[in-house]
Amino acid sequence: MPDIRGLAAEIKDRVSSWEMGVQMGLAPDRNGYCKCPFHTEKTGSLRLYKQGRRGWYCYGCHEGGSVLDLVMKYYQLDLWGAILHIDAAFHLALPLLPPKPMAAKEKREMDFRRWLDQSKRETEEQYQKAVLEAYWLAGDLYNQIDVELRSRALRGLSEAENENFWRLVRLREDTRDAMEDLAVYAIGGDKVG
Q: Which pTM does this prediction carry?
């Protein structure tokens, strides 16, 4: 069986860009000129050659190449897709090769990238859940400290209790600051830390 280069060479020998242009509906005149499908124009500046290897050239957009290049650009195909398209359009019955199977290394790399993307998504979800839980726990702590401070403020405090009171005030302020930071992270801000 011939390789892909051999198939490409055989197509260039057997099918001219003029024949392909007619099959594509480009309607070349007797000199091979037609309107270029790759840019807007009033008169035809695309020339399709009848000799197989000459290919095509547009004097307006300066694009050109072989019959395969024309098919690849027009139908947005890769080389293998263009070979298959031309073979089917002209019933060439080429000894086609199956598409190259993915190498084991490429498959492993693709599987690894897929696993890595999934792991990142799962980690991000777990992170968001943990941040929300930390936010709610900090809120509960803040409320408990606030209730304790209010009850201590209502009764007379000794000097030792007064020192603990101010420690609780600082802890409540630190907890409030932590809650503000966690709220930013919970709605998609920067990472904690």
A: 0.49
Q: Which two tokens stand for residue 166?
A: 């101010």
Residue type, 16: S
| CB neighbour list of residue 153: distance below 8 Å, 6 or more residues apart | 165
Whether the Cβ atoms of residue 81 and residue 91 lie closer than 8 Å to each other = no
What's the domain count of the chain? 2
Domain containing residue 182: 104-186
Specify the range with the lowest mean pLDDT, choosing from 4-13, 120-129, 163-172: 163-172
Question: Tens digits of per-residue pLDDT, 105-157?
Answer: 888 888 888 888 888 889 888 888 888 888 888 888 888 888 887 777 767 66
User: Averaged over 44-56, what is the pLDDT?
Assistant: 86
Same domain, 80 and 140: no
Residue 134 belongs to some domain of the structure: yes
* 53 pLDDT above the threshold of 80: no
pLDDT on residue 94: 82
Q: Are 28 and 34 contacting, i.e. CB atoms less than 8 angstroms apart?
A: yes
**Both 132 and 158 in a single domain?**
yes
Instruction: Classify residue 17 as exposed, middle or buried by CB count within 10 Å of its CB (0-12, 13-18, 19+).
Output: buried
CA distances from 49 to 8, 29, 54, 67 (A): 17, 11, 6, 9
Count Cα neighbours of 184 within 13 Å in the Cβ-side half-sphere.
Answer: 10
Is residue 150 in a domain?
yes
Task: Please tell me whether residues 125 and 55 are part of one structural domain.
Answer: no
